[in-house]
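> call design_seq(struct)
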């Protein structure tokens, strides 16, 4: 199926509240448990691109108290909720929240030990600038962990995935999930971006029935 773009930024208060209310605890925990195995045991500076409501940096700093995280997003209302979660967790000294475009990062070359991103790429009409910026701000041997939805091959597969997410999701939330699936990339498209950005050493694979992962230790 052809890619069908969705809005790059979800920035109404209602959208932020609804997104934050969806239970991604298991997905986020699995994401962070894999991130902390990448080998950065000492102090490290981490960039979380497309942090949304900040659940992932909170989990990262709870599992790796020695890390500092700069968490960025283009949605002011998402960041407002993220600030609440950071404050509730007492991690204000560890996590900085910044209104920043991931395609045009204000950070110096080689600033970060690790760049992570969960479910940002499918929002970007052209993800290549993000991949190039990711490479630029990483230290030469920096680690990478990216995860996002993979676009299904056909309508039947899409329908099955949407129906599989559970009765706790209402019709609007199911529509949001469907829209995200249709805006997602295929594994081949992700590999093409990685080659174009000259990002070497990434392992790219389908990590679930609906996700791809790209990682470098």
């Amino acid at each position: 199926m052809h890619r069908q773009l969705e809005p790059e930024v979800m920035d109404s208060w209602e959208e932020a509240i609804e997104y934050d209310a969806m239970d991604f605890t298991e997905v986020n925990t699995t994401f962070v448990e894999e991130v902390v195995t990448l080998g950065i045991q000492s102090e490290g500076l981490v960039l979380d691109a497309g942090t949304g409501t900040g659940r992932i940096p909170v989990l990262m700093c709870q599992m790796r108290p020695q890390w500092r995280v700069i968490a960025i997003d283009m949605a002011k209302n998402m960041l407002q909720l993220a600030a609440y979660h950071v404050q509730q967790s007492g991690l204000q000294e560890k996590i900085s929240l910044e209104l920043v475009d991931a395609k045009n990062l204000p950070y110096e070359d080689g600033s970060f030990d690790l760049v992570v991103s969960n479910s940002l790429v499918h929002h970007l009409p052209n993800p290549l600038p993000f991949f190039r910026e990711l490479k630029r701000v990483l230290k030469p041997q920096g680690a990478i962990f990216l995860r996002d939805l993979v676009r299904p091959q056909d309508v039947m597969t899409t329908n099955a995935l949407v129906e599989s997410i559970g009765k706790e999701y209402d019709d609007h939330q199911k529509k949001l999930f469907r829209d995200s699936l249709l805006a997602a990339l295929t594994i081949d498209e992700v590999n093409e971006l990685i080659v174009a950005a000259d990002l070497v050493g990434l392992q790219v694979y389908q990590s679930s029935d609906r996700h791809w992962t790209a990682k470098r230790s």
